[in-house]
């Protein structure tokens, strides 16, 4: 009996070590994004005068993607510098990205970058991206690129957690629910593209407009939909 207990406690101890290691190795999205940009900043300038690249995505969540490649040195990882509202001499440095990700035509030379939240203010800006090479900065095609990015607010998240989250539990049989997921639906379309408190994917679905799951509001101005309109106004203004 004593031997059996000893084996049981040994198994429990080993499982605890595995769980502790797993949790300690986890990083939040912000931590991962920050460390990636920081790591990329440590890369030395690379690429010759024939280096080229392009920014292909700069979306409403502040996500940027593109590619950078040196045809004369195809195994080199190029360092991409991201600036907001100006060139290397006049803009705000948002951070760096390493062009070493898999993809299509330029496999192994794609990069992705998340604009820091402190540089997201729900307004239009211009993005500049450069290859940081020993011969100087090489502007990527597709930039300067106008974009608008949105970030949720602490007030909005507090309101969602206290006033909206319980109401959207009816959606859990078909959808994953949560602040970040619903913020994306609240933002579609964005305020500059016709989005409003009464016209966005989240409230349209909740009111049964083009939603196979039916209606969860008697009207857009009552019940859950009224709360969604309040939330929209907190995030984007009335």
Strand content: 15-25%
Task: Describe the sheet with the most strands.
Answer: 5 strands, antiparallel
Q: Which spans have pLDDT < 50 for at least 5 consecutive residues? A: 7-35
Mean pLDDT: 86
Number of strands: 8
Derived from helix and strand composition plus strand pairing, the structural class reads: alpha+beta
Describe this protein's structure:
This protein is of the alpha+beta class and 238 residues long. The protein has helices at 2-24, 29-41, 154-164, 179-186, 201-206, 223-236; strands spanning 52-58, 63-69, 78-84, 92-99, 110-114, 124-133, 136-139, 145-148. The strands form two sheets. Strands 3, 4, 6, 7 and 8 form a five-stranded antiparallel beta sheet that branches. It has a three-stranded antiparallel beta sheet with strand order 1-2-5, with no helix packed on it. Helix 3 (154-164) runs antiparallel to helix 6. The longest helix is centred in the N-terminal third of the chain and has 23 residues, at 2-24. The radius of gyration is 23 Å and the shape is elongated. The model is unreliable at 7-35 (pLDDT under 50).
């Amino acid at each position: 009996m004593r031997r059996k207990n000893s084996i049981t406690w040994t198994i429990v101890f080993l499982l605890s070590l595995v769980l502790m290691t797993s949790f300690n190795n986890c990083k939040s999205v912000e931590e991962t994004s920050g460390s990636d940009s920081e790591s990329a900043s440590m890369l030395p300038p690379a690429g010759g005068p024939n280096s080229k690249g392009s920014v292909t995505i700069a979306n409403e969540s502040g996500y940027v993607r593109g590619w950078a490649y040196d045809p004369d040195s195809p195994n080199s990882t190029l360092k991409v510098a991201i600036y907001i509202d100006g060139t290397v001499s006049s803009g705000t440095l948002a951070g760096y990205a390493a062009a070493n990700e898999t993809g299509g035509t330029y496999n192994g030379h794609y990069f992705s970058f998340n604009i820091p939240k402190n540089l997201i203010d729900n307004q239009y800006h211009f993005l500049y991206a450069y290859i940081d090479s020993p011969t100087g900065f090489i502007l990527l095609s597709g930039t300067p690129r106008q974009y608008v990015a949105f970030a949720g607010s602490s007030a909005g998240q507090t309101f969602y957690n206290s006033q909206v989250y319980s109401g959207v539990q009816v959606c859990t049989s078909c959808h994953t629910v949560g602040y970040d997921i619903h913020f994306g639906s609240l933002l579609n379309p964005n305020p500059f593209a016709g989005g409003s408190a009464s016209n966005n994917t989240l409230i349209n679905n909740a009111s049964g407009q083009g939603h196979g799951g039916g209606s969860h509001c008697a009207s857009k101005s009552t019940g859950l939909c009224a709360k969604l309109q309040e939330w929209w106004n907190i995030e984007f203004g009335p």
